[in-house]
TrEMBL record:
CDD domains: NUDIX_Ap4A_hydrolase_plant_like. GO terms for cellular component: chloroplast. InterPro entries: Nudix_hydrolase (IPR020476), NUDIX_hydrolase-like_dom_sf (IPR015797), NUDIX_hydrolase_CS (IPR020084), NUDIX_hydrolase_dom (IPR000086), RppH (IPR022927). Belongs to the Nudix hydrolase family. Its cofactor is Mn(2+). This is Nudix hydrolase domain-containing protein. One of its GO terms (molecular function) is bis(5'-adenosyl)-pentaphosphatase activity. Residues 72-219 form the Nudix hydrolase domain. Keywords: Hydrolase, Magnesium, Manganese, Metal-binding. GO terms for biological process: nucleoside phosphate metabolic process; ribose phosphate metabolic process.
Length: 234
């Protein structure tokens, strides 16, 4: 369970901001065979890979989750957890109170990404009351900064260029008392504080090397959230 990234200081006040225009991202993803721009249209939400947490993870898992990520990148999952107000969960790293991020973590050998996302969420936040709503239909990659790559790979005993991430949209269905940054006790805690924030704030707080991934994730998930909040059926 490794979550990486350096974030700027997070204000204690979370005011609402409009969502950014993400139709023209600065960086494309050559390993994503889909045109993600189509997911910005509500009428095309049927193209989202929708899954139900109440059904069998193996039988309902979209085939895109089993695609092979690009060579040289560590398989990883990202969790875009939202509450009933469509605010996004983010937490600060232990020992680095100005470093905030969404939950993420590595995929074990032989593990499917959807199960990995559920496991990582439980290990990092203690959350088990959540339903999987959608996933980005391909792997999104980011490279480790050169100054950090050697240290990271020395710790892992590997030679990864960066991480290939499968992102999942989950709806938190429990009570906030369930959130426990000690996790489920199977791994060392990673986070010190947590908060709900707007998608725009999540993007603003992302380090530069992660912003292209965050933009693509928002491009896919934001229309779903807008539809969900307005009561429109998919």
């Amino acid at each position: 369970m490794v979550a990486l990234g350096l974030f700027v200081f997070l204000n204690s006040s979370f005011d609402s901001h409009p969502l950014p225009d993400l139709r023209n991202p600065a960086i494309s993803f050559p390993y994503c065979p889909f045109n993600l721009d189509k997911f910005t249209q509500l009428q095309r939400l049927k193209h989202l890979k929708l899954v139900s947490s109440s059904s069998s993870s193996r039988s309902s898992l979209p085939s895109s989750s089993m695609e092979t990520p690009p060579e040289g990148y560590r398989r990883n999952v990202g969790i875009f957890l939202v509450n009933s107000s469509n605010k996004v969960f983010a937490a600060s790293r232990l020992g680095f109170p100005a470093t905030w991020q969404m939950p993420q973590g590595g995929v074990d050998e032989g593990e499917d990404p959807r199960n990995a996302a559920i496991r990582e969420l439980r290990e990092e936040t203690g959350v088990t009351s959540a339903e999987v709503l959608a996933e980005v239909p391909c792997w999104l990659t980011y490279d480790f900064p050169l100054e950090a790559r050697e240290k990271i790979n020395r710790r892992w005993g590997s030679d990864w260029k960066g991480q290939a991430q499968k992102w999942f949209l989950l709806r938190f269905t429990g009570k906030e008392e369930e959130i426990n940054l000690l996790g489920d006790g199977t791994e060392k805690p990673e986070f010190g504080e947590w908060s709900w924030m707007t998608p725009q704030q999540v993007l603003e707080l992302a380090v530069d090397f992660k912003k292209p991934v965050y933009e693509e994730v928002l491009k896919v998930f934001t229309p779903y959230l807008q539809s969900d909040s307005s009561g429109q059926a998919l």
